[in-house]
Amino acid sequence: MNTQVRIERYADQGRCVAHIDGRVVFVRFALPGELVDIRLDEPHDRDDRFWTGEVTEVIEPSADRVDPVWPLAGPLAWGGGVGGADMVHVSIPGQLRWKSSTIGEQMRRLGHVDVEVPVVGVPDDVDRNGLGWRTRIEMIADDKGRPSMRRRESHIRVPLDAMPLATDALNAVADRQRVWEGGFVPGSQIRLAVPEPRNASSDDDIPAAVGDNYALLVDGKLKSGSQTLTETVRLNDGHEFTYTVDAGGFWQVHRQAPIALANEVIDLVRKRLDGAESAVLWDLYSGSGLFTLPLAAATAERTQVLSIEGAKTAVKSAQRNLRAAGLDNVDSRAGDVSKTLRNIPKNLALPDVVVLDPPRAGAKKHVCEQIADSGTRSVIYVACDPTSLARDTATFTDLGYDLAHIQGFDIYPNTHHVETVALFTK
């Protein structure tokens, strides 16, 4: 079914809201204020609370609209549909406004706080139109063994000959390894991970700078490169940290995200410590130690750090990273965060600052309560989902904390995802 609608406002997951005869319609590839033709998704004749649809033609465009910078990820009617970039039709400044609005709306609706949320991006992303940032990509082999992505609303696999969202280094490795030529077993899962070569001064230097510091995994097994990858993070004050991470494990995917987030977190910690010579710090959901290492080495003269992470492979990476850095002031533990917090040493039981970077579902009420019970006066929350952050904000507010600072980071350009760092103080 095709119809014409006036788009009203932003919604979630990169969609916007319109109405048809009083019924809410969530529309993909739209912008507020636009008059557009849309095609409703099937089935659209049920008595559902809402419908969904997609733009087929723009009659009156928004000033924030641009031609899709990756057409293959644009609307189906325009030859797109592969997914993975649901904001390719929005200018980078427009994306920042959209994400700011989304975080603010969730904080008001679920967090019960009325706050303006600035969102900043990586400056180079504007020049590159939000392309060239992913250091990890995942694809599936089509029936001819070529790397592909599935087209929405179908079982069709669209073969790829490049990945516009990926970094120059990743695309260079893909070319060198002849990834785009195929030869994979149909249906196999393909993962390519290439840490950003921060010592490369030009595009010509990329292959040599990458060397073997990449991984091509097929169905989870290493086909070429290294199973253990090396990442580097340099803080604004000159501190530099080296991390080894598993090729199949989690690491912030934007080439500059680890640097941006680490600088924000460490700056906030230092401000809360206010020159104190000693401190006890918690790093919860600590992964491979992105924040653990600078917390232990670059915050106070004498620190004790408790880090907790549920993924055993990530904990092994973090422990290896700490040993390599010569840091012996971290108690690094593997296990469920809530269960692990029930039994910790007395010397770590009273944290000055708690840093947490939970999964998409958030920390949830019980962990928030355990943090509050520790008596800490400062909580720094790194969130990859505004909805979960808002729910946990309401919990922290009920526990006596105020939202003292909030900042969004657009480290997922051309997608609806956004990272947010919030500071709660007692």
UniProtKB/TrEMBL annotation:
Protein's UniProt keywords contain Transferase: yes
Pfam family, one: TRAM
InterPro entries xref list: MeTrfase_TrmA_AS, NA-bd_OB-fold, SAM-dependent_MTases_sf, TRAM_dom, U5_MeTrfase_fam
Residues annotated as the enzyme's active site: C384
Residue ranges occupied by any TRAM domain in the UniProt entry: 1-57
Keyword Methyltransferase: yes
GO terms assigned for molecular function: rRNA (uridine-C5-)-methyltransferase activity
Any one biological process term the GO annotation gives: rRNA base methylation
Assigned keywords, A-Z: Methyltransferase, S-adenosyl-L-methionine, Transferase
Binding, S-adenosyl-L-methionine: Q252, Y285, E309, D357
Alphabetical list of PANTHER family matching this protein: RNA M5U METHYLTRANSFERASE, TRNA (URACIL(54)-C(5))-METHYLTRANSFERASE
Family affiliation: Belongs to the class I-like SAM-binding methyltransferase superfamily. RNA M5U methyltransferase family.
Protein name: Class I SAM-dependent RNA methyltransferase
